[in-house]
Amino acid sequence: MLYWKNDTDLDYCKFCAEVRYKSTRERNPNRKKTRYAILMYLAFTPHLQRLYAPKATTEQMMWHANHQTVEGSMCHSSDTEAWRHFYRIYPDFVVEPRIVRLSLCMDGFVPHGHYGCTYSCWLIILTPYYLPPRMCMSSKYMFLTMVILGPSNKKCLIDVYLKPLIDELQNLWYVDVLTYDNAKNKIFTIHGLLMWIVNDLPAYGMASGWSTISVIGCLTCMDDTRALYLQNGRKTCYFDCHRQFLHQDHLYRRNKKAFTNNRVERKVARLRLMGEQIHDWIVEFSPAVEILLALPPRYGSEHKWRKKNIFLEFEY
């Protein structure tokens, strides 16, 4: 519901037909309407087009394709295996090096402190990974896309608020957006894709649909986790779960003092599930809706999925 398209006079949502405003105005007609939820969304496609306007940033947007890669070292995201994997799946995009790869960062905080106030604020930030490391990690090129305000934590229902962002990402992938390249003095079609999501563990559980609470909180280890429950602290500890991912000759595997006492790590880590495998697993689960979700069958014993992953739906 966009206020600049004459939607302010509508009392019901034109998408879901639910009431938009609280009933407090009925008792006092002169009182201002109070919305149930507020979402501030800033489109990021114009920001990407604006990066190709000045010559200074236009030349830097091609840095990922022109810089010299040293074998065995990584100084930019273009040196990663995920970057090369995309070229193997979509070889047609190798010809056009101006396809923008994006990273999404989401986190929330309490703006009014922790003294009895439950008001929360969630920020969604997009970062283009075409610029050099000194530029793409600066605040100037981190695009604040969404501000989600509300009296309570959104938890798994944050998917409802991410819908405008997903629509724009799909539009940037499928639709040809005309952009002017100042360096080459011509118009080209810009495309973009979301490659990474950067967040902490609680936000990771909100975005993926896998609950990170309690022992089975790792989406990689799942029910084969090595997490420990601290009896005195009453919390789950993942202190010595990472040694299984090292190669068999690594010194840390035989270290009995710096990690768990008198234990040598001989376990081989399980392979990470691919997107197709996760999609087949949760295809029958319920997606995020505006009501409280019922937990799927065998939740807590075999898995920790609470909903269908929105980013997997976007991919497939």
Automatic annotation (TrEMBL):
Q: What is this protein called?
A: Uncharacterized protein
Recorded hits in Pfam families, A to Z, give: Transposase_21 (PF02992)
Q: Which InterPro entries match?
A: Transposase_21 (IPR004242)
Organism from which the protein derives: Sesamum angolense
Q: Which domain of life is it from?
A: Eukaryota
